[in-house]
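Review form for a predicted model. The reviewer records the input and the model, then writes brief findings.
Reviewer: anonymous (R2)
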Amino acid sequence: MADQPVDKKSFKKLGTRHKARRRAVDLLFEAEARDVDPADLLDERVELAARDQAVAPVHAYTHTLVEGVADDLDRVDGTIESYLKDWELSRLPAVDRAILRIAVWELFHANDVPPVVAVDEAVELAKELSTDDSPSFVNGVLGQVVLVAPQVRAAAAATRAARPEADA
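Model under review:
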């Protein structure tokens, strides 16, 4: 088996951040299905993993994604909705909503994630978890969000820079 060539796509899917994103999708999906706050569900899972060794611990990046999406849900959803043509966010498959929410949050806030990686990861997750049409749909929506992401990041940085003056 060691002599077999490594398939770069398969190797990428096994990456730590990919697994963290997938778990974040699962948590956001479950939170929506149960109508609970994603951050509360995340806390439940962290506690469960601490008590039960059979439950995988929650990766720090999963924590970052779920809390980030939960904290910025209105802006993330508003952004997604603004790029849906003849669709409403509520009509999308729930897994697609979770995937798009994570990718948009990463595009806006994860400075250590190149935009192409955020989009590629979202498309890969859609291939793994959703319908045959979802990867191209997710790619199309995120292709539009990528165009505005630098302005959103710059505005967020300017807001953060202005806050210390307001607190003084």
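Findings: The CA atoms of residues 30 and 131 lie 18 Å apart.
Further findings: Confidence is low (pLDDT under 50) at residues 1-13.
Recommendation: see findings above.
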